[in-house]
Every structure is written in structure tokens, then in C-alpha cells.
Amino acid sequence: MTIPAETPGAAGPEVGAPAWGERLVVILAVVVSGLAFLAAVSPWATEPPGYSLDGFNVAVWGEGARAAVDDPVASRLGGRRLTGDRYADHPPLTVWATAVATGVGGDRPLVVRSPALVAGLLSLAVLALILRDLELDVIAVVGGVVLSATSGMFLAYGAMLDTPMVSLPVGLAAVRVGLRARQGRPPRPGVAVAVGVLAGLAGWQAALTVGLVVFAVVRRARRAAAALASGLIAGLAATAGWIAWVLGDLGPLWRQAAVRAGSGGGEAPWIATQPPYLRDLYGWGLLAAVVIGVLLAGFRPRRPGGASGERYVVAVLLVTIAGYAVLFRNGAAVHDYWTYWGVALVGVATAVLIDRAASVVRDQPRDVAIATRAGIGMVVVGAAVASWAQPSVAEQRIRDGLDLRAAVAHLPVADSPEAEVVAVYPTRERVPWVEYAVRGRAVSVWSREGLAELPPSLPVLVILSGEPSPALRDRADVVTERFAVLPAGDLVEHLGG
Q1: Mean pLDDT, residues 366-374 taken together
Q2: CA-based angle 22:23:29, to the nearest 5?
Q3: How many angstroms separate the CA atoms of 216 and 312, rounded?
Q4: 321-332: burial string, b at 16+ Cβ within 10 Å, e else
Q5: What is the pLDDT of residue 294?
Q6: Sign of the Cα pseudo-torsion (360, 366, 368, 372, in order)
């Protein structure tokens, strides 16, 4: 896909507050949106990892951070867990940032999540800067930020500790470097190099974004492109070195990439998962607005003589999101947050749409312009409040998973990270959300025969598939809505083994 060239736009809109007033309005919008985000995620951001995708990822990266703080060298800077497991499928910035945060602020839930929380707030700020650089109407800038911050995806997963979340502000910073370079006002080379390095250390999506930005600006801003590219190469080299240090070589990374590049049983299952994910985390109304905004940015310049970089920004984000989902379609099939970077596209596309709507009355009498802008503002606020107040299915799963805390409170804490102090039944998967809580190893058990092989006194965390029976309630040490804890021997007897 060719990313189209554009020229800088003309001066901003005539109707509205002075420049300093507009900046204040935008800052206020970012602050209020950030506070709304923090308020929405506070029920689980302040709690230990729960039984959900969110809890799984927080536990995985949190375990790495614990190991890095305990022994940076032996843990290979967080790649080797205290339990002996290794995890280096992604660039290391997330585990490094978490290790620094917990080393300074302590191993507390909010501190563990702080890299994701800070990244979410920074993403809103950088998004606002990009929209300002595009010279959109101030109401469009505010609307784009607000709709991005209150999208179901951002509210459900913006606080999740994982590379898409931590790397998003870095990717947006790269987009802004390219935008300003295309507008003839590139940042200093050192800034571009730093952004490239961080992208290579932060996440594969950020690295892909920098590559697209370099391609888009190389002909008109070679110095900026060279600075970004050199930084990216250095960052990726450091990432590759770290992965090889942790895993011994890069072979496991390529094998994991091959798994993620699979479609999960043919193309249809992968494709079939996307509509329900998108409907839940964005909503058809917001997606329709995004599609219209993308089309307006691509085919209808904002002003005669050229737009202000909208097509470039939209193209880079669109190719990054779609390209990452198609390239690693197994990941997109099993993770509903795989299109998390869509929150940035929501902000840009809806801002373009709002800008076009506001421009219709730009030359009309002042009272007409004010009434129209007020109407636009009411629509944006209404959509934002509705999204914020109605949790997505993904968010509800995170909330429901918090009842794990009551169950793990009855589990023993390991004397050493290698000790097996609990079993989890029935599952074949890794259970980092349990291992993180007990600070030791958890045995995954799938069958009754496997339960019979366990020490009779070993506590078993049972994942319930329905209402627990009175007999199970009598035997269990604790029963919650979805979990029960009881000794392995008692569970075997209960199941008739």
C-alpha cells in the first residue's frame, strides 16, 4: 500500500477561541479523559491479577519483574522467572519498566500495572498532539480524544500490562515524528533516534509502525527517516540480544511467531472471531464513524490545496492494525485485544469526521456555528458517557475474574519459587494468575486420573463450570461463584475416584 504524500494545510479555523484558549481546552479534555479512564479501571487495577486475559498478562509480566528485581543477572533481566520458566516472546521494555516500577514503589497491584496506566495516559496526550498538528478544529481534537478514551477497548484493556498497551504511545510518537517531518518541521535527530530505539524495545507493533513511517517520509525528509531507522535497528538489535540471552537462541521466537501466524484451523475461524470482538470493544456505531472518517481523510482533503497529513496518519495506523492482525492471525483469533491500537485510529478518524461536520458551518453566522458545535459536543459527550457507563463483555469478564482473590486467599504461599503448593483443575494451560498469587508453582491437572496422582493433602483450586453442589460446598475450604478450594484427596472422593 502506498502512503500518499500531502502538503501542510493552511491556517486553522477562524471560529473559536484564541490559540492559547484552544490549547487549554485540549489539555482539559486530555486530563478529564484520563481521569475517566483511571476511574473506570480502578476496580481491577488496584487488585491482584484475576481470572481473565487481563489477569494472565499482568501475572506473566509481573512474575518477570519480580525475578528482575530479585536477581537481574540470574533472571536475564526478567526473562527467566523465579519458578524457572522463561518468557521472551516480545521485546523487553514492558518487563523492564515493571521491574523499575516495583523496585521503587513495591510489589503492589497498582504499581505493577503502572507502566500500562502511564502508557494509556501518554497515548491520549500524544494523540491530542497529533490532532493539533493536523490543524483540526479544536472541537474535533477534543472529540477524538474523548471518543478514543471512552471506547470499550481502551476501558477494558488500557490498564492491562502487555506490549500493545505499553508500546502505543511510542508508536504514536513515531507517527508524530513522521508527520512533523512531512510538514517541514522535523524534531531533532536525537529525538527521532530515541523514538526508534524505544519502538524496537517496546513491541512488534511499534516496530512495524516505525518501518511504515520511515517508508512514508524517506523521500521528503531523509534525515528524519534515517534517524528513526537507525534507532529502530539499534532497538531491535538489543531486543534480539536479550531474547537470545534468555532463550539461548532465536529459534523459540521464530517457532512462536509461526504459531501466531497460523489461522487457528483455517481462515474462516480467524475471520469469524473478528466481528464479535469489534462489536463488543468498539461498537458498530463508533466503527461506522471511524469508517466515514477514514474515507474523508483519504478521499476528501480538508481544504483546497492539500490536507494536513490526515491520509498519512490514517494510512500508517490502518496498515499497522490490519497488518498485525492478518500477519499474526492466530493471535487475533484467540485474543480480542489484538486490535488494541484501534483506539488511536478511533481518535484520528472521528476527529476528521467532526472537523468536516464543523467546517460546514464555518462561514455561517456565529450563532449558527455555535449551535452546530454545541450539537456536535452533545453527541460526543452522549456517546462517551454511554460507552463509559456500559461495560463491554471483555470488561465484565475482568470484573468477574476478581473473585479469584477470595479463593487464593485460602492457598498457601510457597517457601521457594520452585515449590509446588497448589494444583488447578480442570485445565491444561499455564496458570500464572495462580502462581503469581502463591509465589510458587501450580500444577495444571485435566483429568480425574491426574488428580489421583497428586498428594492427597495438596490444595486444589477448582474452576467451576456451574453451580457447586451441596456436597462440594460441604467438603470445600472455600467456595466462590466460580472457584472452590479443597484438598486433592477430598476432591477425588467427591468425584468418585
Answers
A1: 86
A2: 90
A3: 8
A4: beebbeebbbbb
A5: 97
A6: positive
User: Using the 8-state DSSP alphabet, how is residue 134 labeled?
Assistant: T
Grid cell, residue 336, equals 480480542
Domain range for 356 is 19-398
Answer with the residue of higher pLDDT: 17 or 374: 374
Q: Is residue 453 within a helix (H) or strand (E), and if so which, with residue range?
A: none
Q: For 37-105, give the DSSP string.
A: HHHHHHHHHTS---SSHHHHHHHHHHHHHHHHHH-TTTTTTTTB-TTS-B--SS-SHHHHHHHHHHHHH
Give the residues across from 289 on adjacent strands: none
Phi then psi for residue 224, to 5 deg, are -65, -40
Q: How many residues does the chain have?
A: 497
Cβ neighbours, 10 Å, residue 99? 25
- Domain C-terminal end among 350, 376, 398: 398
Looking at the domain assignment, is residue 10 inside a domain?
no
Assigned domain for 7 exists: no
**Burial of 56: CB neighbours in 10 Å, binned 0-12, 13-18, 19+:** buried
In a domain, 304, yes or no: yes
pTM attached to this predicted model: 0.92
> Domain check: are 392 and 415 in the same one?
no
Query: Residue 186 domain-assigned?
Result: yes
| Overall domain count for the chain | 2
